[in-house]
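Carbon-nitrogen hydrolase family protein
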Amino acid sequence: MGRRVRIAAVAAHFGRDVGQCLTKVEAILADARDRGVQLLVFPDATIGGYLGDLGRGDDTGLPPALDAGSTELARVTEAAGDLVVCLGYRESAGGQHYNSAVCVTGDGVLGRHRKVHQPAGELPAYAPGGAFTAFDTPLGRIGMLIDYDKTFPEAARTLAGDGAQVLACLSAWPASLTDRAPRLVQDRQSRLFDLYDCARAAENQVVWVSANQTGTMGRLRFLGQSKVVGPGGDVLARTWAKAGLALADVDVAGEVGRARTVLDHLRERRPEAYS
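Tokens:
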């Protein structure tokens, strides 16, 4: 038996009030610590919330922008202590704004990611990131994606190829705006959200940690459905549409190694045939 890691994906609502967001983060962190969590993944836009209406190009209703050295992120880092914590925020850097994620412990920053793939409605609010890079943590090598990034197989595959055995996907994923269903479980985006989570885990044979917002922001109604998925594409824990923690104990190296014993998708790729 290898080392088991207690992993939790957060489903919760985070709005514009930064102070309230930080208080909620600290409360969830305290609860997770009491429950023995070692890796805690928050949704996209944890600090200050997501956009309220895709396509708005002015500053009305946009999330507050924080620089990488902000006191707000320092407060989260201090609260993290011995936990490995991933969370999202709107980053200000070099005159641009990015939809960003950071991974921290109490000792400091372990890794960063800027959302690369953007739905059209995000373009006025964010500049795109330009890379997918895994990083080392006390719990092993991890990669991060944000929201729409998971729609593109190359994103998760790049991180897995860079040695990540755990992929954390931070989302503010809403129900469909163009084809609303009477119930979230019937929504097209709800189905796709779950499909991508399971497919990316299975095709890369990694542990997938998917955190998503709940509640509403402007016209957007977020799905929740946070989950932990094993390297065979099996859902190990989930929150459904409600707020809460999807919590699972996983022997990450053992489960990934077992999944790759006979069929190793990364090793058996044929890049020369894909051009």
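The mean pLDDT is 95.
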